[in-house]
């Protein structure tokens, strides 16, 4: 039998890891006889997905578009702020500690404040997704611009390039790998922010569904919500990984 090529192994490896995880999960639950209201197995979770596919789908769609809106706002703010911070050493030194301090605040602490300001619903979830996802974008874009080699900048200045030319023609293209790397992290964090807000201050979304099911001890449905969130996050992660490989392929070793 002909051995698999390296590329084939790379394609199969993620699926093999998922299958092994599911088998171990179901095996542990069955061997230990854990009740489904404590820790459901794969089959119980799959049955919940099938039996409650309509409410799960509706709540998942709510969570998805809420996350995407918060993420897009985070991208716009993060990219703009990253350019401002990274293009000036003074701004980098002044703003970076403030950004780190802001990021250290647990975002769930903002949810009660957002409820007072905007009420219970979608708006707090969008803002929470934005607050939790824009920091990686700012940091990566600013780092990509701030670490431009001084020698290269000096050569460009000698050749007559203005500061704006250096930023647009060298700095921004050079920071694109950093930017797309941050997008893959930010989109997963955006889902976290949305679900956290939905569990506290919403009457719709996967977070609300999981909280309601958990209060009724319907753990298979809770795990169905967790699986749904994981799948959506993985799909979006792969979308940005594909974009990264096609737009900034020059920066990665094949």
Describe what this molecule looks like in 3D.
This protein has 254 residues and is mostly helical. The relative contact order is 0.13. The protein is built from ten helices and no strands. Helix 3 runs parallel beside helix 6 and helix 4 (89-104) packs antiparallel against helix 6. The two termini are 27 Å apart. The model has no long low-confidence stretch (mean pLDDT 83). It has helices spanning 6-32, 42-51, 53-86, 89-104, 111-118, 122-146, 150-158, 163-201, 206-215, 219-247. The chain has a single domain (60-248), classed as MetI-like fold.
CATH C-level class is: Mainly Alpha
Strand content: under 5%
Provide the number of structural domains.
1
- The secondary-structure element order is HHHHHHHHHH
CATH topology: MetI-like fold
Could you write a compact summary of the structure shown?
The chain is mainly α and 254 residues long. Helices cover 81% and strands 0% of the residues.
């Amino acid at each position: 039998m002909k051995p698999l090529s390296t590329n084939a192994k790379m394609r199969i490896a993620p699926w093999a890891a998922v299958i092994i995880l599911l088998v171990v999960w179901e095996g542990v639950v069955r061997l230990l006889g854990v009740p489904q209201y404590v820790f459901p197995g794969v089959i119980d979770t799959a049955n919940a997905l099938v039996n409650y596919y309509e409410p799960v789908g509706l709540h998942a769609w709510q969570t998805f578009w809420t996350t995407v809106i918060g993420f897009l706002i985070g991208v716009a703010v993060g990219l703009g702020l990253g350019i401002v911070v990274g293009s000036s050493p003074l701004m980098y030194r002044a703003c970076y500690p403030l950004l780190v301090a802001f990021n250290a605040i647990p975002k769930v602490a903002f949810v009660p404040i957002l409820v007072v300001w905007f009420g219970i619903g979608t708006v707090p979830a969008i803002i929470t997704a934005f607050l939790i996802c824009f920091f990686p974008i700012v940091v990566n874009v600013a780092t990509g611009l701030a670490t431009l080699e001084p020698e290269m900048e000096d050569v460009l200045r000698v050749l007559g390039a203005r500061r704006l030319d250096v930023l647009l023609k060298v700095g921004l293209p050079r920071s694109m790998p950093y930017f797309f790397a941050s997008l893959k992290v930010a989109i997963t964090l955006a889902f976290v922010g949305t679900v956290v807000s939905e569990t506290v201050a919403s009457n719709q979304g996967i977070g609300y569904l999981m909280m309601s099911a958990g209060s009724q001890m319907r753990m298979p449905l809770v795990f169905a919500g967790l699986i749904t969130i994981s799948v959506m996050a993985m799909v979006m992660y792969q979308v940005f990984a594909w974009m990264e490989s096609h737009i900034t392929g020059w920066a990665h070793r094949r």
